[in-house]
Design goal:
The chain is mostly helical and 198 residues long. It has 2 domains: 52 residues, no CATH class; 122 residues, no CATH class. Helices cover 74% and strands 0% of the residues. The termini are far apart.
Amino acid sequence: MTHASSSSGDTDKPKLSAIEAELLQTVLDPVQSSPWINTETAAEYEERLLAAGAFLEISEAEAAQGWETLSTQLDGVWINSEDGLLVQLQQKFAERVPADMLAVIAEKAQQMANSGKPMMKQMIGCVQECLNDVAEADLRVIARPMALAMRGSSADEFVEATVQSVRQTKWNDLSAIEQAKLGLAAARYAIAQVNTLK
């Protein structure tokens, strides 16, 4: 009885078709089933790596020259950003604010814009050393409207309105408060320009 069931079990097994047999042979063949395995020998692989490395090698002189070129380019970017800010300030305020004060404002605006201080303190920090005759409390009163203005056109409008509110005359003929208004307007404008470049 046991013998009969075993023979009937053999006849119940499905036979493989030619395609299935070929597929099974391909899967079981270690060379064909792993085409991604590199058959290249270790020596050949090492030779190729050394050749590629030799191609990429540079001399110390070339490395020094490359570093010098990069440093010069980075210095140029930094100088151009500060010089560019000074040029913008001169275009907008040259007729109203002395050139030496604009240079100080451009330099200080670069520092203050990255300080994390409130806008009013940034503005005062840009002009304080140039306006020794004006108390800090007065500078705060003048700076407050421009500092609290939202970014964008309203801040520009406050700057423009402040400049227009100061009479057109020589710098030395202006009162200390009028000089402070123009200086703070230039500072607010400079800080806004630095922030747009971030």
